[in-house]
Amino acid sequence: MRDRVPVVVQTGGVRSTPARVLWAGAEAVVTCGVVLLLLVAHQLWWTNQQARAQAGRQVQALEREWEGSPAVLPSEVPAQSPAQSPSESAGAESAGAEPSVSPSVTETQPAGAAPSAETAYAIIRIPRIGLTAPVARGVGKRSVLDRGYVGQYPGTASPGRPGNVALAGHRNTHGEPFRYINRLRKGDRIEIQTRERRYAYVVDQVLSQTAPRDTGVIQPVPRSLVKPSYGYSAPGSYLTLTTCTPEFSSAYRLVVWATLVR
Predict the structure, then answer these.
(1) Which of 107, 105, 99 minimizes the C-alpha distance to 140?
(2) Extended beta strands in 43-194, E state
(3) Degrees to nearest 5, angle at CA 181 with 222 and 135
């Protein structure tokens, strides 16, 4: 009687069809996760690094340009000259999710040649939150805000002048200069330096939340149209900071008001 020889069949590790499907699905999930992680890192980290570096270089460039023309605080100079330049009206540029407050306002502008749009002309400093950033005219996302700059709504007052200097800045990503303005309290100091001098403002009111289209907050005499108990009723020299709130959302706007130190 012959011995039976056992036959061993080797599959070579070939997976069944369900296993292949599960493996392919797992690879797809991992790939998508890696891509999303890279996108988040780019948006939350890399854009900040780029914008802060660019804004820092601009601040240094302005400071070098102004060397030899020392700035002085308003308390060290006479009151503003009665001579005023003509008023002009301009529609503020709505720029995506950040500064969607976009009214048409009439404001006094400084005499002489004004800086061209989207060109940094001033430096804002807020000691409370450790902020130093360039200020440019205009609130375009790509041309101003995404560069880490603080943007000035077109048609609003120039620093130190009667009226309302209305500024916007990102709260998250692209340098996020206004990320911590919610920490500002009454009495905190805000400085804006131009070629001519350094102006000092003191925080007076904080509106923690209002609608994106609350155009009253950046008018010459700023007052919320949504919450009329916030704002002012008489002309003066005001500074307005606006940004999105809550963080990582553009649902509402956070507003900080300050008044010029005389």
Answers:
(1) 99
(2) 87-91, 104-108, 120-126, 131-137, 150-152, 163-168, 189-193
(3) 75
Answer yes or no: are the C-beta atoms of 73 and 197 closer than 8 Å.
yes
Under the banding of pLDDT at 50, 70 and 90, the label for residue 47 is: confident
Q: Which two tokens stand for residue 88?
A: 């002009």
18-35 pLDDT, tens digit per residue, is 777 777 777 667 666 655
Known active-site residue 32: no
Single-letter code of the amino acid located at 58:
Q
Is 125 designated active site? no
15 assigned to active site: no
- Homologous superfamily of 74-260: Sortase (2.40.260.10)
**Residues across the chain:** 262
Sequence ranges of the domains in the chain? 74-260
Q: Which of 170, 171, 179, 198 is flagged as catalytic?
A: 170
CA–CA gap between residue 170 and residue 131 (Å, rounded): 13
- The predicted model scores a pTM of 0.72
> How far is residue 227's CA from residue 218's CA, in Å, rounded to a whole number?
14
Q: Chain centroid to CA 192: how far?
A: 16
**Three-class SS of 6-20:** CCCCCCCCCCCHHHH
Tokens matching residue 252? 């509402």
